[in-house]
Specification:
Strand content: 15-25%
Structural class: alpha/beta
Number of helices: 10
């Protein structure tokens, strides 16, 4: 059974005969007659009782007509939906993000996207890099704002560098510091609170390497899964933390952030998505992201300055 069979059948009912249906559909009458005959053969019932030139529905034909109209209406809706999806007017887009790193720009980016594509449903997933990897694997997100993919995943992902951020040290405000920069070597005797390695391997390994390059191995006091928890531990006097500069976007009233000396290391922050044909929704989001790159970097750098306890960050 094809949709054209239902369309021809419905037209015969609507126009009360084969001749008028043929005239309105611009289809030869024999073709319509054959389609209806094929439909009756497939169903094993008579749809019309033919009396002269009139085509009157049988009782079973009336029941079938009601359902046929519903099917044709649903088919029309499905076609319209598919066409709108192809234009990017509707669909879904899953977005993974690290909250403190995307705070300066993500809300504006999403607002502009929704203004252009109001029919696309957004699913937002806030998580650490490892959590976003799992969300990709489960098909929950289409794009992630995160650290660069690890070597074992990079061949399956595309990435776009958004910005490169320095490391800073977070100290409790009770610590009296008169300089704007802290020598890394001077932290050798400190207890460290750190973002656990399973959550963000790149950042963890970079922090440990920076310490090693300056003559010591950090004394890891606590390894936590949440940057808010890291800063709360610093506030509580449980240790100090070397963190990425965007951590200063978080509200931590009793923490000061200081640039490090030497200050050679930068940590990349990227937008990443899987290497496959992107959906229309994702492609339109990537187009907007490309337009906003300059603004994203400006907003991020400004946030570092505002979030720091001094203006030279």
């Amino acid at each position: 059974m094809e949709l054209r069979h239902l369309r021809y059948f419905a037209a015969v009912v609507q126009w009360k005969g084969y001749r008028e249906a043929s005239r309105h559909l611009y289809i030869a009458q024999p073709s319509i007659s054959q389609a209806v005959s094929d439909l009756e053969s497939e169903l094993g019932i008579r749809l019309f009782s033919r009396e002269g030139r009139a085509a009157r529905l049988t009782p079973e034909g009336e029941a079938f007509y009601e359902e046929a109209i519903k099917t044709l209406a649903q088919a029309a809706r499905s076609i319209a939906t598919a066409q709108r999806a192809a234009k990017g007017e509707i669909g879904r887009l899953g977005v993974g993000f690290m909250g403190f790193s995307t705070y300066p720009f993500l809300s504006d980016l999403l607002r502009k996207y929704k203004a252009r594509h109001p029919g696309v449903a957004l699913r937002l997933v806030e998580d650490v890099p490892h959590g976003q990897n799992l969300a990709f694997d489960r098909g929950e997100i289409d794009i992630g704002f995160t650290r660069p993919p690890s070597s074992d995943r990079s061949s399956s992902y595309e990435s776009r560098l958004l910005f490169r951020e320095p490391l800073v040290v977070a100290l409790p405000k009770t610590r009296k510091v008169t300089t704007k920069r802290i020598r890394i070597a001077d932290l050798a005797s400190e207890r460290f609170v750190i973002f656990q390695r399973t959550s963000s391997p790149e950042v963890f390994d970079t922090i440990v390497r920076v310490c090693n390059d300056n003559g010591f191995s950090p004394r890891l006091h606590n390894e936590l899964n949440n940057m808010n928890s890291v800063l709360a531990s610093v506030e509580a006097g449980e240790g100090i933390a070397i963190v990425s500069a965007t951590a200063s976007n978080l509200r931590a009233d009793n923490v000061h952030f200081f640039r490090l000396q030497p200050d050679k290391v930068r940590i990349d922050f990227v937008a990443t998505w899987q290497k496959k044909e992107p959906s229309v929704a994702l492609k339109s989001f990537l187009d907007l992201l490309a337009e906003e790159m300059s603004a994203i970097r400006q907003k991020t750098e400004l946030a570092w300055q505002i979030g720091a306890t001094y203006r030279s960050i």
